[in-house]
């Protein structure tokens, strides 16, 4: 009956595109998200659970339900994340930093922690973590986000080493700027911080990409589906950029 797939942060954006893509190929899908309104729009054949991916109690509940209803898990897309503040490092409040790291890094850790015993028991599985090209470069005015997205790569590499002997693969996707409300908000905040216009910031981002384009959530979802497939059976421990090739992460225009 297809794969059993968990997507955190699956109510909208990249996570929603992932869920739709897996569902369309006949897989069973469970999505978690904090946004009840977004979850209310999920198809009836999905399992939708509201909660915070960085909350251990919530994630224990999610995996208890997976065990009860599916008896195991084949694919975990640790996708939940938040943009965090846009500010110089000296202007970032400690709580803002901690919250950004908690959702982006601790959420991925919890998903892996609770998936690992199930996947080890069945000697198969794929863990896919959503990083960012902010996890490949420095990112001025986004220290919390860049820190978290670099950190998930260390987590992924370690998972690949620990779980590989059990037939379990771990990889990360590093999207570039993904079209949608989140990047629009980032651009607006950066424009205010730099005293310029959103159009100038957007043009600068595009100029720093070889293909001169933002990506879509579907572009990222397509990569997740590949990494979960038998076609990627020996792809593990890798960071796959889906960004049109970033030449300069902080271009000046």
From TrEMBL:
Keywords: Oxidoreductase. SUPFAM superfamilies: NAD(P)-binding Rossmann-fold domains (SSF51735). It comes from the Bacteria. One of its GO terms (molecular function) is oxidoreductase activity. The keyword Ion transport does not apply. Belongs to the short-chain dehydrogenases/reductases (SDR) family. This is 3-ketoacyl-ACP reductase. It comes from Hoeflea olei.
């Amino acid at each position: 009956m297809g794969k059993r797939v968990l997507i955190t942060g699956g109510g909208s954006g990249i996570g929603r595109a992932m869920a739709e893509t897996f569902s369309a190929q006949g897989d069973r899908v469970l999505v978690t998200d904090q946004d009840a309104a977004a979850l209310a729009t999920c198809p009836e054949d999905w399992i939708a659970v509201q909660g915070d991916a960085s909350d251990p109690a919530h994630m224990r509940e999610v995996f208890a339900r997976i065990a009860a209803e599916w008896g195991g898990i084949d694919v975990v897309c640790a996708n939940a994340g938040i943009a965090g503040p846009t500010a110089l490092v000296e202007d970032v409040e400690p709580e803002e930093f901690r919250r950004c790291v908690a959702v982006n890094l601790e959420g991925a850790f919890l998903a892996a922690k609770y998936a690992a015993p199930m996947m080890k028991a069945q000697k198969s599985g794929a863990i896919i973590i959503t990083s960012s090209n902010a996890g490949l470069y420095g990112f001025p005015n986004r220290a919390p986000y860049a820190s978290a997205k670099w950190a998930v790569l260390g987590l992924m590499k370690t998972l690949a080493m620990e779980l590989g002997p059990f037939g379990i693969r771990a990889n990360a996707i590093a999207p570039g700027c993904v079209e949608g409300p989140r990047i629009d908000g980032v651009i607006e905040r950066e424009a205010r911080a730099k005293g310029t216009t959103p159009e100038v910031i957007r043009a600068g981002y595009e100029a720093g990409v070889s293909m001169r384009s933002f990506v879509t959530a579907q572009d990222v979802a397509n990569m997740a589906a590949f990494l979960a497939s038998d076609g990627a059976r020996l792809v593990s421990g890798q960071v796959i950029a889906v960004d049109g090739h970033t030449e300069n992460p902080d271009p000046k225009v």
